[in-house]
Amino acid sequence: MPKVISIHSYRGGTGKSNFTANLATTVASQGNRVGIVDTDLPSPGIHMLFSLEADDINKTLNDYLWGRAAMEDAAYDVSANVGIEGDGKLFLVPSSFKADDIAKILKEGYDVKLLNDGFRKLVKGLQLDYLFIDTHPGLSKETFLSIAISHILILILRPDKQDYQGTAVTVDVARQLKVRKMLLAINKVLSSMNLEALRQKVEETYTAPVAGIFPLSEDLVQLASEGVFCVKYPTHPVSQEFSKVAQHIVA
């Protein structure tokens, strides 16, 4: 049974796309067929992590939403880009990063119901084991859909008062939508913090398990989105933490 995993944060700047790229790559490297859909239409960017350049992309999620193409036609096999071999496969459906397309989405919106239909056809057409949805921050119709159809929702937050408050709102919405499984990931944690105390505080606050705690890493910052971190630094503590989160997904 294919699993749908939504990666979400209430605020921008939490490292959501980096998180999605690394976690999906980790799961695909274990021999699974994995898809990612970038539904952050107003501010797309995950394609850069997979070294997809403008000349490489001729169809996007936007084309599907505007009736120009099937979602499968906008799926790019990026397995070789991240060194995945054997049975594992990784596909990405990017959103358009053209200014005119972004402006059109912001002005006209789109039929959110099309996403659910597209996700189903993508999973079936590519025979996916896992589908990751990289969402737009905040709460919207698209967010509600992604949460509602997900087998697993991963909420990313930083140890920051605004993040704590926004995450509380999102957790409440997720429970109202009866999300099947909810996990928390704490990102950009200072090395001076007590990790076990932080885990306990967050789990008690939201009554949900913390799947991973990720340090604020200079190595990750220096990579500057030029590739997937866990591929370039497979033994790094950050990469090892992604492996731990992946265990929650494939269990």
Automatic annotation (TrEMBL):
Name the SUPFAM superfamilies for this protein: P-loop containing nucleoside triphosphate hydrolases (SSF52540)
Q: Entry's InterPro entries?
A: DNA_Partitioning_ATPase (IPR050678), P-loop_NTPase (IPR027417), YlxH/NBP35 (IPR033756)
Q: Which UniProt keywords apply?
A: ATP-binding, Nucleotide-binding
Q: Does the keyword Repeat apply?
A: no
Asked if Nucleotide-binding is a keyword of the record, the answer is yes
Q: Which Pfam families match?
A: ParA
Which GO MF terms are attached to this record?
Answer: ATP binding
Q: What is this protein called?
A: ParA family protein
Species of origin: Stanieria cyanosphaera (strain ATCC 29371 / PCC 7437)
